[in-house]
Structure formats: structure tokens, C-alpha cells
Amino acid sequence: MTNFTITRRIAGLAAALAVSVAAAPLAQAQSAFSTPERLDGGQVSFASAERGRPVLAGGEVVATGRGFRPNQSVSLLYGQTRIGGATANAEGGFETRLSVPANAVSGNHPIVVVADAPYNAEIANLKVSPTVPLSNEASYRITSIQPTRGLYQTAYSAKRNAVFATSAVGRPPVRQSELLRLNADTLAVEARITPAAAPGRTGRDGQLQDGGVFAVYGVGVDDAHDTVWVTNSRQNTVAVYRQSDLSLVRQFEPGTVNHARDVVIDEQDGKAYASATFEPEIVVFDTAALSVSKRIKIDSTVRGETFSAASVSYDRAANRLYVASNSTNEIAVINTQTDAVEHVYPVPGARSVIGVAHDAQTNRIFVAAQGTDNLVILNGADGSVVADTPVGAGALNVVFEPKSRRAFVSTFGAGTVTVTDVDGQIVANLPAPPVANHVSTDGRGNVYAAVKSGWSSDGNDSVLLIRPAR
After folding, report:
1. pLDDT digits (tens, 9 = 90+) for 418-428
2. Is the alpha carbon torsion for 274, 280, 281, 282 positive or negative?
């Protein structure tokens, strides 16, 4: 796309916004180089007027300001065009509404926030998500159950033909959490257990408070030892359960893995890999000894930034572990035979990189980016971009299904599972409302999706079994 085309599109969006926003007081003229505002001044954020939904073309946006001075006048500009504004209330906050034009281009649009008396200017991000219609639903059969609230992830066991699912509800102290075993073909619940009580937490008043339970989030299956591994994100650790009756085998000490997110198992070499969110680290466990064997540090290629390990994907055929960095928009490639970091690739055109998968046959890396609503496919040999596909608001996780040779992307905002081929072409877009959280595969052509109930406080979450129609 040429710079001329981009400029025309930005100008068109600005003009349309300016027409569609109700008039608000203009900021007073600034005296040249008058007293500036402190750098820690006000901030503005944007959200859809429809709670729990993404900002889409043709929709209404709520702009919320905070941290301004009482009665301070604030203008919102797209380039040099004023698209709205407000006057801060006695608490330094405001709320105003904007209408996004129907022809708005999806993407991250910089909005200039200008405050008066004293003068300050900041940049706020307004993300307009792509609208990807449902398609080719007839090619898939979807089975759904609602086993519990707060579903996070699923993982398949070939040994037991079972799917293990994790759930956790609310913020610390989390008291409602379950590990479930489901029949892989019918999704019937075969077993379930609530994790043990977690240690108490010291509150701001210095008093010991209820620690809730060792809530479970990420999940990985070890058929070689008939166990299932889970991450306890709130206690910064992991735990191991028996597949047969879900009894606890080993609860690792709090602090073992910082905000542990994902855990995957290399059954061949007897290793479990857990990602330490907000840290440049993968913690490696010996699955036989049930002990920490090493820690792999990942250095970012972005100057002055720190790699933050998020989603991980293990490809046994390639003997590689793929790690997404949410903070630096990178993918690390780790050789699982040596546990050495071979590559750290930037992901151009992506913000808030979060999900990752790999196809050993083409050596392509599939990356889901929540901040740009896209699936970026990289060449695993050199990190070059093969495809960049808009898949819907909040692209969160991705799995590559080897039998059909399709990538399945869960979108947290759009509430869909988008299916693409290895070249990034969308072949289907399937409903998974309201919030598609995670996808996994059994390697036989079937995909399992964990779907959250969104803003509903009383509805159970769903596990979907997505199968080819023929």
C-alpha cells in the first residue's frame, strides 16, 4: 500500500469522524511555550459502547479520560482534525462518545489528546477491529457442552482418548477452579476435581488473608507417565495430577514459575516446558523426577526491551519449542534436543503477540496477535513474513491441525474460530460466541475450543468439539 493511499484513508476516517461526533467546546488557544503539563498527566482509552464487544466500523465508541485537572478542556484530534472533546469533571475524568464511520479502515489509529491550561499532548490508540463474516460453517460439525465456569485451556490425551480442561473464576483469591477430564468423542465429563487450598496472602494491612485454591489455567498432557500438568498462574507455579482419578501427584512450590501461563510436554525426552509470563524465561522440568532441570533465558532482539514468555507450542516432529513474547512482539525458536535458543524473530505488523503454532512440513510459524487482530505466518527458516491475515477482534490463540493442514485461531473479541490454510487464506469462520479463548487439537482432524461466557456472570462456559463434516 502506498503512502498516498494510507494518507487518503486516514484523512477520510478523520473527516467522517469529525462529521459524526457531536460538537464539544474547543480548547482555548495556547500561548506559545506556556507552562507545560506534567508528563504523568491525563490518559484516554477507547472501548466499544456495547460492553464486551470490539470497536467495529459503523459502531459507537466510548472515550474515557482520567488523571486530568478539574475543569480542564480536552480535545481529541485525528491528525489535524478535531473529532471530539470534553471538559474534565471535579475528579479529573470525563466520558464522551464517538461514532466510527461505516467505511473506517480496520487497524490501530493514533488519536492526539490535547489538554489545555496547562498544555499537554499525548497519543491514545483507537483500535478498529476487522469485521470477518461467518463462512463455510457447513464443512464442520460442532458439538458443545457447558461443563463449568471459567474455562481456560484444553489438551488431548491419546492414551485415554480424553480431553483435559482447566477452569478458574475471578481474581485472587480464586476459590472456584476445576480440572476436568472429558470423553474426547462425546465431551461427557468423566472426572473432575477442585485443587487444594493455596497458602494465605498477606494483605496491605499486614494481616494474613485467604489464599483461595491452587487455581488451574494452562494444561499439558504426559501420556508417558499417565499425568497431566497444569499451571497455577496466581501462585507462580505448576502442579501435576494423575490422569486416572485426577489425584494430585506433585504441587510445586509457589514462585517456581513466574505467573506460569502455558505448559507443554516433550514425552520423548521426558521434559515439561512452562512459560514464565513477564519474564524472559522458560522453566524446564524433568517429568520422571518431577523436578526443575533448567531454566532457559530468552534475550529480546529489541534494544532495551525484555522478552516476556507467553504462549508456547511444542512440535515433536521438528524437535522445536516456539515461544511468543507479548511485550516485544517476537517469536523464539528453541531446539528441544539441546534446549538452546536458535532464533528470535520479530513479527512485523503485529502488536500484543500472544498465540503461536507450527507446521513441521512447511516450517511455517503461525502467530496470533491480539493487538492487531491478525494471524501472521512466518517462514521458520529466516523469519520472513509469508502472510498477514485479519481474522477478527482479539486473535488470542492458534493451533495447527496436521491432518487437515489447517490453522485454527480463537478470537477473544469476535467470538469466532477462524480457519486458514497454510498460506493464510481463510477457508472458514466458525461461531464460538461470546468469547473464544483457546484451541487445541488431537492430531486426528479434530479441534477443541474453550469458550468463555463473556460478561455473563451466571452462564457456564463451553467446550466445543469441531470436526470435519465428512
Report:
1. 999 999 999 99
2. positive
